[in-house]
Amino acid sequence: MLTVPLLVGVVVGGPAWVHVPLAVAWYVAYFAFFAAGLWLRSGRKARYFPPVRVYALVAVVPGLVVCVVRPEVLWWALVFGPLVVGSAVCSHYRADRSLLNDVLTVVAATLMLPVAWSLGSTPGHEVAMWQSTAMVGAYFVGTVLYVKTMIRERGSRMYYVASVVYHLMLVVVPFVWAQSERGLVHEGGAAIFAAFFTLLAARAVIMPQVGGTPRQVGMGEIGASLVLVVLLLGAW
What we know:
By secondary structure, the chain is mostly helical. The protein has two domains: 1-121, no CATH class; 125-236. It is built from ten helices and no strands. It has helices at 3-13, 19-41, 49-69, 77-92, 99-110, 112-118, 126-150, 157-177, 187-210, 214-235. α1 packs parallel to α6 and α5 (99-110) packs antiparallel against α7. The longest helix is centred in the middle third of the chain and has 25 residues, at 126-150. This is YwiC-like protein.
């Protein structure tokens, strides 16, 4: 979830040297974010705070490089700020495994795609970029629902139905986007993306009935993510 949006954004925006400090800041900031979540869930116990401080300080250096070179990136703080605060509140109330927090995290991670794209050497095709962003976000929200039906919410009828209905809805989206002349996909490409989402929908229907270990679920998600990256980059 951290790598896919960043990778796609870098490639479709055109690789630039500023993407190097951006990537370093992005990953280290996530480490700080994760450590902060543990600290908040612990009731802010002192022994959990040192990793937060260290990762935050390390992230500052590459983050400043990006901000100095491309100061327009600071506008994104207005978008990421509420998402981070919302997730911090969830962690404070020990709701870090809630659907709300998962969606907030997915949205924040997905938005790295337009950030990386905007800092690229040859950013273009803005409509296609936003459709790519929406497709990545939609995929990862589906992943949240699917993984819950496989592990934490296994056996929950509500989550199972929500996951299946959500994935079936995604099958139609590529055909809707194909109507846009400046969009990411056209008729042929729409069928390919629809086939991908159909397979995900079938997985959402079948796999919770079959079951699987967390490792198996994780490996499946890695495979699906790689396929999505190939399809997105191929569509460009």
